[in-house]
Amino acid sequence: MADDMILETEDLTKDFAGFVAVNGVSLHVCSGTIHALIGPNGAGKTTCFNLLTKFLRPTRGRILFKGRDITAMQPADVARLGLVRSFQISAIFPHMSVLDNVRIALQRKRGTSFDFWHASSVLDVFSDRAMELITDVGLSSYANWIAAELPYGRKRALEIATTLALDPEMMLLDEPTAGMAHEDIGRISQLIKRVAANRTVLMVEHNLSVVADISDRITVLTRGRILAEGDYEAVSNNSEVRGAYLGVGNA
């Protein structure tokens, strides 16, 4: 595990009219790791993600990305720094092909506007790289499919491909295996491991088998606070974690 921190929070707190959804969270994510954020329903995971990706402004606290304070930055500016949430930019266009979805994402990386109203030939320059990404996520045989017609698990793979088109240094994945059949869960888990080979991943995930299989480090939230941190063995053997998930006492 790398020693350097790519993402840190200090006393991150979000108060909604007296309800504290995230309470004093100090998170430390090491560069080059897969870090899972888990916890029971209502633990504050999604709110924490929304704070990190600037969809919410914290009541107090700081967020640092590569040592830079991004607390007051806008979502698009944070994404340009290399911190990208999967649904934030991927925005699958359901009536376009898989190939065109990825080519448009590559065009966005170039910094120009989407050329929906021009001939499709303007995207041809991105075709080779788009096919590389499509192949990387296991969708080469679906390249010409309309996105809306993809099976659910394949749509999630396309979302990851369009996110990868932005060449992020760190990806935030919000429940990447939610609603998937067993065979799709295994496929997406392995995909996450592959894309994490040269970048950092922070993910919210309810499937603890996935967390156990691919995570380097885990942070457990409950009632907006950090309850425990460590590898899967450490947190799964923590009596307070078992209590939060299962209602088991500390005896």
Q: Strand share of the residues?
A: 15-25%
Shape descriptor reads: globular
Which consecutive residue ranges, at least 5 long each, have pLDDT under 50?
none
Q: Report how far apart the termini are.
A: 33 Å
What would you call the structural class? alpha/beta
**Which oligomeric form is depicted?**
single chain
Q: Report the average pLDDT across residues.
A: 88
Q: What's the Cα radius of gyration? A: 19 Å
As for the CATH topology of the largest domain, it is Rossmann fold
Let me know the largest β-sheet: 6 strands, mixed
Number of strands: 11
Helices and strands, in N-to-C order? EEEEHEEHEHHHHEHEHEEHH
Explain what this protein looks like in three dimensions.
This protein is an alpha/beta fold and 251 residues long. The protein folds into 2 domains: 149 residues, 3-Layer(aba) Sandwich (Rossmann fold), CATH 3.40.50.300; 79 residues, no CATH class. Helix content is 36%, strand content 24%. It has 10 helices and 11 strands. The strands form 2 sheets. A 6-stranded mixed β-sheet has the order 7-8-9-4-10-11, with helices on both faces. α4 packs across α5, α4 packs parallel to α6 and α6 packs parallel to α7. The chain is globular, with a radius of gyration of 19 Å.
Structure described in brief:
This protein has 251 residues and is an alpha/beta fold. The protein contains 10 helices and 11 strands.
Question: Could you give the topology of this structure?
Answer:
Layout: E1 5-16, E2 19-25, E3 28-30, E4 34-38, H1 45-52, E5 60-65, E6 68-69, H2 75-81, E7 83-85, H3 86-90, H4 98-110, H5 127-136, H6 152-164, E8 170-174, H7 182-195, E9 200-204, H8 208-214, E10 217-222, E11 225-230, H9 232-236, H10 239-246
Parallel strand pairs: 4-9, 4-10, 7-8, 8-9
Antiparallel strand pairs: 1-2, 1-3, 1-5, 5-6, 10-11
